[in-house]
Amino acid sequence: MKIRDQLFIGGKWINASPRATIEVINPATGAKLADVQKASIKDIAAAIASARQAFDETWGKMNPAERGAWLHKVGDAILRNQEFIAQVEADDVGKPIFESRNIDVSSGAATFHYFADICAEVMGEVQPSPYNQVLDYTIREPVGVVGAIIPWNFPFLIACRKIATALAAGNTMVIKPSSWAPLSTLLLGEVFQEVGVPAGVLNIVPAAGSDAGEAFTNSDVVHDITFTGSTEIGGRLYSACAPRLKGCTLELGGKSPGLVLPDCDMDETVAGTLFGVYLNQGECCCALTRLIVHAGVYNEFVAKFVAGAKAIRVGMPRQEDTRMGPLVHPEHLKTVMGFVEAGKQEGATLLCGGNVLKGGEFAKGNFMEATVFADVKPSMRVWREEIFGPVVVLAKASSVEQMVAMANDTPYGLAASVWTTNLKAAHTIAPQIKAGTVWFNLHNFVVPSAPYGGFGASGVGSELGKQGLLALTRTKNVMVSLFPGGFKWY
User: Fold this and answer.
1) What is the domain partition of the chain in residue ranges?
2) Does residue 129 carry a pLDDT above 90?
3) Candidates 89, 190, 251, 283; catalytic one
4) Catalytic: 57?
5) Closest alpha carbon to 147 in 168, 171, 170, 173
6) Cβ atoms 364, 29 nearer than 8 A
7) Which residues contact 36 (CB under 8 A, 6 or more apart)?
8) Where are the beta strands (DSSP E) in 122-221?
9) Are the CB atoms for 385 and 226 separated by under 8 Å?
10) What is the DSSP letter of 104?
11) Helix, strand, or coil here: 367?
12) Interatomic CA distance for residues 482 and 261, integer angstroms
């Protein structure tokens, strides 16, 4: 297996036309990792045609068991190449190797295995009929070609989620990775070649987001689009799909709250919320970004949480003891630091962090400290807007009712977590929170078998689980006459 700089179309590595490139930079060192060829709209069209041909001639004709066997082979190949993929992901994104190995790559393989197992489980059912002489059943059919656009924060894992779901349903795919971190997604082309998946089932085209969006929405061959990224871009993509009656699944931004109740297990809560906030440098759509703490435990929690944030080991991504690496790009670091300055100017209290790390090994990278703000008001930008970095804001509440109201004070609704030892309170609070996922004494856990999606500005539809598989199918109802001698009305 090796790093690729070409387009993966029709089961082959081909050159882009014209030969434009995307410069990929290591966020930890500032050094160039690769010049990846940039697909034009013409190239994307060729990838779409290849996917359609594969759907018509091979993949779309397979039964679910056959598709499942191929997906299991892909999952096995990912695990065989786990360490190499993890290293590429660490270099490409800046995440610690400990995370890329044990979360991104292992979960990517598990996703392929899960969808391989459920291929045949949700493809149709017999319907009850009021007529004894009619057999009524449904068939779940693939939509055809699915276009996918993915972000830079979990490029390998999110690619695996979208590819495995679409292919399990019988579709083929064209996927556009992020220009900031395309390398690990391109490795999936190597994996598909290694195991011999039929040509054209998966096509990978690094490209400008606008070009991919235009090609996917304008194509009569692409019947569904799945997108993970910003709410702004997702809204534009959704609007472009609407006139064409094209399916569109959106997993967008978040401003996820964590509610710390007075009866929580304090040590477990501090450890769990630190993971919720700082996993992947806080560059997570569902990251825990607002901590709403009951006044009864506020001082104790804040003291322990800040001590934990200060102790997080910031370092180079390939070092085994690193727990927080650089942000993905200098422009993104600038954006996150803009929020830090806004928090200061608006009167929030900076309890720790808030600085770019510049000396020694950090000199050429995009490193910053784990940052905590307190005394945050709902009117402040750091409370209302998605920061997408290692920054959390703290607020105090006097009752559970107030905590729930503060949690719901956002246009987003991707995820939330509640920290309590009272199961009755937990199950009472869950339906009151406007979010697609509610965790209890956990945060940032996403598994292939559970649906993942948000409310409001956080998206449309769900990925993963059986729901995600069904979303990429069409339902056909079939009725069979069992009337002796046929049905005779006249």
Assistant:
1) 7-252+458-477, 256-440
2) no
3) 251
4) no
5) 173
6) yes
7) 5, 21, 22, 24, 182, 183, 186, 206
8) 124-127, 134-142, 145-149, 172-176, 202-204
9) no
10) I
11) coil
12) 61
What is the model's pLDDT at position 441?
97
- The token pair at 363 is 């000199």
- Whether 242 contacts 217, CB under 8 Å: no
CATH class of segment(s) 256-440: alpha beta
**CA distance linking residue 109 with residue 80, whole number of Å:** 10
Q: In angstroms, rounded to a whole number, what is the distance separating the alpha carbons of residues 79 and 105?
A: 8
Tokens of 327: 């942000």
Cα angle, residue 78 at apex, residues 7 and 16 outer, rounded to 5°: 5
- The Cα–Cα gap between 299 and 301 comes to 6
The pLDDT of residue 127 is 84
**Band of the pLDDT at 150, cuts 50, 70, 90?**
very high
Please confirm, yes or no, whether 285 is among the known catalytic residues.
yes
* The residue type at 15: N
Structure tokens at 98: 């400990």
Q: Which of 285, 286, 386, 463 is catalytic?
A: 285
Identify the band that residue 124 occupies on the pLDDT scale cut at 50, 70 and 90: confident
Look over the chain and give the mean of its residue pLDDT values, rounded to a whole number: 96
Which is the CATH superfamily of the domain at 7-252+458-477?
Answer: Aldehyde Dehydrogenase; Chain A, domain 1 (3.40.605.10)
